[in-house]
Protein 1
Amino acid sequence: MTEPEQFWARVEPGLSACWFWRGAVSRDGYGKATWHGRTWRAHRLAYALTHGPIPAHLQVCHACDTPLCCRPDHLWVGTHDENHADCTRKGRRPTGARHGSVTHPASRPRGAMHYNAKLSPGQVAEIRQQYRPGLSAQVAHDFGISRSQVCRIVRGARWKET
């Protein structure tokens, strides 16, 4: 069996419109295949085998929005921006209640756990105790943060969990 035949043997044309990859799958849900010693995403290799080389800096996008689909007529090449515009147009962008910061809040470091945090929970409590209208500049200076950050902390827009 030739290499292209070996690749297509792992693609299941099936009864649905999509042709599903039945080989190895990466953590993000896309098929992966080795071709001439290089690991490819299966849909990119399917496109290259069918349509020829993929132009540099272009992505192989799915018209069907199915990461495991390798059906050549479901694949098209486009820039990163075109792929994102397609995603937005089809309503697949995770925004609002579907955004990862909402659906998986534990995956987003907050407060003192954030890599860029300048304050500890104790300092935040102290800021809230010391704050009085007209004193935000002094409190900000004492803690090395901006006046607007002091106001956000006092309002509860920042450091909500403390």
Note: The two ends are 64 Å apart (CA to CA).
Protein 2
Amino acid sequence: MDRIKVFIVDDHLIFLKGLITLLNEISFVEVIGSAINGKDFIDKIENADPDIIIMDIKMPEMDGVEATRLALKRKPNLKIIALSMLCDEECIKEMLLAGAKGFLLKNIEKGELEKAILMAMKNKVFISEELHELLPLNFFKNNNNLL
């Protein structure tokens, strides 16, 4: 399997460094860059060629929802996975409708992160199991562009 190139966007430096360390433990992943907010990401993405973006949502200067929309306009084949401490229904819906291929909580374990990356590469949506109850049962049926 070719290595999957991952770019990380998060404004909390200690979390960002920890996530890079965790991703470097996954044999099929190569971390190719990082950004500290959405604006920094949009500036850097022009010169990067990632397969997967792991995107925080609440960040200064430009949040993850806006950065996701802008990035997908410029590079429609990007696969973006939201990663946040937030877990309300509206936030999840906003990210998914902006084009994200997944939504993970920051308390995930390595196996769940691996699964989300692999599913995104197959153009499938992955959401942390503990978030399933927040989304109405008909959300994916009514938004079949997510699948």
Note: The two ends are 24 Å apart (CA to CA).
Protein 3
Amino acid sequence: MPKGVYKRKPFSEKHRENICKSHKGKPKPWLKGKPSGSKGKNWKHTKQARQKIKKNNAKYWLGKERLKMRGKKNPSWAGGISFEPYSVDWTVTLKRAIRERDNYICQICSKYGNIVHHIDYDKKNCDPKNLITLCRGCHAKTNFNRKHWQNFLKEMMK
């Protein structure tokens, strides 16, 4: 295929009319929560809301709040366990076997999953009963409120 800039042909009037007809009467997500008929043009925050947004954004843009949340001060800190090495048994073959056991399906939401997760969050426990296949989204969820997910997944595996 030749290199270069390709220009898109403009839509014909007939095509534009068809697009307008197909969208007529459908909900407009960009208008959600806004006064009807304003189409977002006249929607403004109150003066107090603007000041609050400005104050909160200033904290994060300056980086002061981010620096306060590092390491042990972060509410998600789990004692530095992310730096522990995995077990010698944690191999590509083991992970593939677990994925194949679960048919590459996330055991929480039933979507495609390719991440092998330790139910008890212990990297050294590579028992197949302790391993489960998850999708990216569900794996991210399981990193918060760990006690809940640990109990939930243990019950699921029974």
Note: The helical segments are 13-23, 47-62, 64-68, 92-101, 136-141, 146-157.
Protein 4
Amino acid sequence: MSTTVTDDQRRVFFQISEAIAPTWEKRRPFIERTVTPVREWLIRELAPRAGDTVLELAAGAGDTGFEAARLAGDRGRLLSTDLSPAMLEVARRRGAELGVRNVDFRLIDAEAIALEADSVDGVICRFGYMLMVDCARALRETRRVLRPGGRVVLAVWGAPDRNPFFTAIGAALVRAGHLPPPDPDGPGPFSMGDPQRISALLAGAGFRSVRTEAVPVAFVVRDVAEYLDIVADTAGPIGLALQAVPGDERAALGATLEQALAPFATAGGFEVPGVALCAVAG
């Protein structure tokens, strides 16, 4: 892949993060409620100790890192980081809301982490590495900044067939011509959806001990209208494509999705299953 192509991809993903930050903040309660099992897994496996320095990459609203900061205590420190200034401001507001004091907010590119080698005790990255143009480079940088005995915990989305919340709308948008087919070799929500790929990437970055686990989640929505609104507000390029769909076509899209989501109907709406792949490595 040429330098020009990768730079273009980085620019696009940066623009997407900047554009979606305000609506991501609005949907933060829904996101955190949905991925609670993932957040709990990451914190349990990282097991931050009092006095630790923890780095969160691609932190978004920052909630996972803030939980680590609580466990690290007054003598510890959280570096809550993101490549997007708009996303970093979302985390800053959330940290102020929670009253987190042992945190530094920094703009950091995970593919070129501006920290000294052996400077942190743990690294968290929740649904971030999968969207990085060169995730192998980002994982090597993660290994570089970790102190001996430190560990990284990460989460990505599992295989497409186990995540219909994303694939139902993605397939519908592609069929309707509103979204190009996904690049199987490029960054995206399912680019690390194979446990063997995760293990190989971590081993290639220098990690010796790697363990992965599938963690189920459930996306609970009242109806298809709410489903579409949440996707439009949070789902990166899929969300931005959906935002651009004209009203009459969006209504037709909703009818298509009523059928696609019918297997997940409940008395109160829909409960759409999903699976995250989580990993811990040291």
Note: The chain is about 45% helix and 20% strand.
